[in-house]
């Protein structure tokens, strides 16, 4: 089975994550998308507690049976290096082929990722286009033929500027986030008084 890994802080998970996952299923050879929240984010900021981010991702993954929660990074308390996660997944699920999703907005900083050269030579990456960011690997000096990047190019792909940062700022200012979050995630945030 081909599995796409959508990793991130999911702080909080939002409709943009679902939009990406849905389109990965439609426009690639992937059979499932596993939403994989980080335990600790390498470049992060203030994260909501792990238990809350996991609960919200589990609410998000109820929307489509092919979009699933993957807790390997949390359960193994990984440092945030993608190579560690992918090594665990490949060992635990040797019959699956994994594809790590990366937004084109992350390409400019890809060389700051831990073990980035080994990571890209030993693992498959799907580049999802983001508004305002090139998907041309030459622009980032990442066009080495041994790098296993595949750009998702389809004229029907829809991109969005929805971000967890904007959602947190809107919640803090008591502004509506109705069109950014699934209703159950929004309710969870309100009940648990997150991001205020």
What this model shows, in words?
The protein is an alpha/beta fold and 196 residues long. The protein is built from 7 helices and 6 strands, in the order E-H-E-H-E-H-H-E-H-E-E-H-H. Helix 2 (50-60) links the parallel strand 2 (32-37) and strand 3. Helix content is 33%, strand content 16%. It has one domain (2-159): Rossmann fold, CATH 3.40.50. Helix 2 runs antiparallel to helix 7 (183-191). The protein has a 6-stranded parallel sheet with strand order 3-2-1-4-5-6, sandwiched between helices.
The CATH superfamily is identified as HUPs
Q: How large is the count of helical segments?
A: 7
Helix content: 25-40%
From the alpha carbons, calculate the radius of gyration and give it in angstroms. Answer: 16 Å
Query: What is the H-and-E element order?
Result: EHEHEHHEHEEHH
Segments where pLDDT lies below 50 for 5+ residues?
Answer: none
The strand order across the widest sheet is: 3-2-1-4-5-6
Number of domains: 1
- CATH top level is Alpha Beta
CATH topology: Rossmann fold
Query: What is the strand content?
Result: 15-25%
The shape, in one word, is globular
Can you give the mean pLDDT? 94
- Number of DSSP E strands: 6
Any guess at the CATH architecture? 3-Layer(aba) Sandwich
Content-based structural category: alpha/beta
Distance between the termini: 41 Å
Q: What composes the largest sheet?
A: 6 strands, parallel
EC number: 2.7.7.18
Function: Catalyzes the reversible adenylation of nicotinate mononucleotide (NaMN) to nicotinic acid adenine dinucleotide (NaAD).
Catalytic activity: nicotinate beta-D-ribonucleotide + ATP + H(+) = deamido-NAD(+) + diphosphate
GO molecular function: ATP binding; nicotinate-nucleotide adenylyltransferase activity
């Amino acid at each position: 089975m081909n599995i796409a890994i959508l990793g991130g802080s999911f702080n909080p998970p939002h409709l943009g994550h679902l939009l990406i996952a849905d389109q990965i299923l439609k426009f690639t050879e992937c059979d499932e998308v596993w939403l994989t929240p980080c335990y600790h984010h390498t470049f992060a900021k203030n994260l909501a507690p792990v238990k809350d981010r996991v609960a919200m991702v589990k609410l998000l993954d109820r929307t489509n049976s092919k979009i699933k929660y993957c807790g390997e990074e949390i359960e193994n308390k990984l440092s945030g290096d993608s190579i560690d996660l992918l090594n665990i997944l490949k060992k635990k699920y040797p019959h699956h082929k994994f594809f790590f999703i990366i937004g084109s907005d992350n390409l400019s900083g890809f060389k700051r990722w831990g073990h980035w050269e080994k990571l890209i030579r030993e693992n498959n990456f799907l580049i999802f286009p983001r508004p305002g960011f090139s998907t041309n690997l030459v622009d980032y000096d990442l066009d080495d033929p041994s790098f296993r990047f595949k750009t998702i190019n389809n004229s029907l792909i829809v991109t969005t500027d929805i971000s967890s940062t904007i959602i947190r700022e809107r919640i803090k200012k008591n502004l509506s986030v109705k069109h950014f979050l699934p209703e159950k995630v929004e309710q969870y945030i309100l009940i648990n008084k997150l991001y205020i």
